[in-house]
Amino acid sequence: MHDHNDHNHENPAVDEHAHRNLGGGEEPLDAANQSLSDALISSFRILKGIMLVLMFLFIFSNVRSVDTSEQALLLRLGSLIDVRDPGLVWALPYPIDEIVPMPTKKSNELLITSHSFHRRASEVGVPLAVVARDASEGLDPVHDGALLTADAGLVHTQWKITYKIEDLRSFVTEIEGDSVSTAESLIRSYIETVGVRVASELTAEEIIRTRLEYVRSEMHRRVNERLRALNSGIEVTLVEMYEPTPPLQVRASFDNAQKAENRKRSVISQAKQARVKILNEAAGEAHTELVEVLDRRDLAISAGRSLTAVQREVDRVLETLVEGEAGIHLKEAGAQLSVLVGQIQSDVELYRTLLPEYESNSELLVARLWEQTREAIFSHPGVSKIYRPAGCQFRLTIPLDPQETQLAEQRRLQDEKYDVSKLKGLRKAVLINTP
Fold it and tell me: Of the N and C termini of the chain, which has fewer Cβ atoms inside 10 Å?
């Protein structure tokens, strides 16, 4: 009976056949066996459902959503099959297929301190201006990084790099990397190498203060050139330099030297401005050309060459281009020259006119000219005229020159001031020495 029941449970068709033959006279199952049979049937159906669900879950176990800022590598047995864009990505179950997301659509930042000094635990987070080192301390090549400059100086600095993986397929195939750490290792290596080259072309002062933008742009350009040459699929979008400083042990001396250099540049700049101002006032905007031609003339003189051509150039500049005080004096001199030349020409013409008359009757000419001169003198409004009767004598008193009188009065007042101050000093000395 036990074997019969087991056989029926294993073969539901036989069980159903037995039920159909109950009317034919076979003995029906008891209630317990019937319940057990129904339970086994239900359990088997549930087990099949669970197996179907597990199979479905297994088939779709390697489905994941790729964020909009990422792309996904689809690897089959470790080899690259495809690069998937953002969205829902399906692959064969692991370990057959593997989906590796990579942040390609967003910018990544990397801080590189290879060229910076090592901060002690107490100096972490402290502003650079506060951090100090004793002059007797040296640099530790194991922990302290630095850049060697063109003037044999040392510079500490930090780099902040912003980058993107623009071409994920190139990155994976050429670099053979499937993680951000691989890209950052490559960028770090290039920054360290290019930083050494750029620093070797500049002075410490240029890197620290005067050519910061050039250093940043040159690092950016050279690192990207190397990444493109490698077909890495990586692009550096921004290079920032933080806290460039000379070694802390000599920072005070460096700052003092720089202050002195700045003062020197300031004085030179002021002198150049004063020079330009003086030259502008003296010769106007043409002072540059005037200085050039005068320098050429000096060179010609020192070399013993002919001055004809260069002197003509000097005269041309002076007569046509020079303005300012020199231009004013030149114009005044030209005007005076014209007046003097005119006067001389008039005198020459007068001389030529009077010469024949003088040769014919000199006494008459002299008497006539004296009469004309005396008439001109007495007719002048600034001449005082005194008529002396015949037989009378005059005594003329000529007063001192007013300018000389004024100077004499100034000297007298100055002497009196000196005597008064001397008298006050003597009185003070007497009062001090008096008990």
Answer: C
